[in-house]
Specification:
The chain is mainly α and about 250 residues long. Helix content is about 75%, strand content about 5%. The chain has two domains: about 70 residues, Arc Repressor Mutant, subunit A, CATH 1.10.10.10; about 150 residues, Up-down Bundle (Four Helix Bundle (Hemerythrin (Met), subunit A)), CATH 1.20.120.530. Strand 2 and strand 3 form a beta hairpin.
Amino acid sequence: MRDERPPESSEDGGPPATTRRLDNRTLWEQVREELRDDILGGQLAPGTVLSEVALAESFGVSRGPIREALSRLESDGLVTITPRRGAIVADLTPDEFIEAYQVREALETFAIRLAVPRLGEAELARLRELHAEMVEHATGGEVNGFFDANTAFHDVIVAGSGNRKLHETYRVLMDQMGRYLARSLTLRGSLEKSITEHSAILEAVEAGDSERAVRLLADHIEVPQRVEVETDEHDAVTNREITTEGREH
């Protein structure tokens, strides 16, 4: 399934302790990266059990790097580790989906308020470039490419805040939300609608209008969570009606 990874060095006659730690770090990082990509890409669906033994055989490493990689993925919110079941690919409930978007809204609106006065021509040029990429990918129906450019666009804004801790927290959250970008697109309506919203945000940023940029960005991020709530409420009403009809009959 995967390329073979070189086995870990034995302690007898091996390299110095410092080198062994660096090698181990490289191994678990490689494992974490591949598993992360599989989870975010949908190859590993929510609820999938991640066996340490099976993964160790697949990657050609001992269980140590596997255990460390799974622990890191748990910290990222992508995996849940329980005492008897082991590691399981995590899922988001509708409530968690909404909560994640609420946190994202808080982080990004704060970031853009800080960023607008600080962004230089290089950052603005990068935002224009990424917006053009979104348009190009949308025209070609390249959804994955669109999401890559979209994610990078928002990341430039958050990085532009100059607050490293904010940027670090934001990236962890976006890793957790990566699997749900397709769902957010469904709730939003279309790639074209998203592009229109990004155009307005970019215009406000270029004009140096922090307050307008904050409002537009908040509206942009609120759309999926607002539609999710409306969908859940509609489903709840429909289920109640079906239950009532069943009882009447």
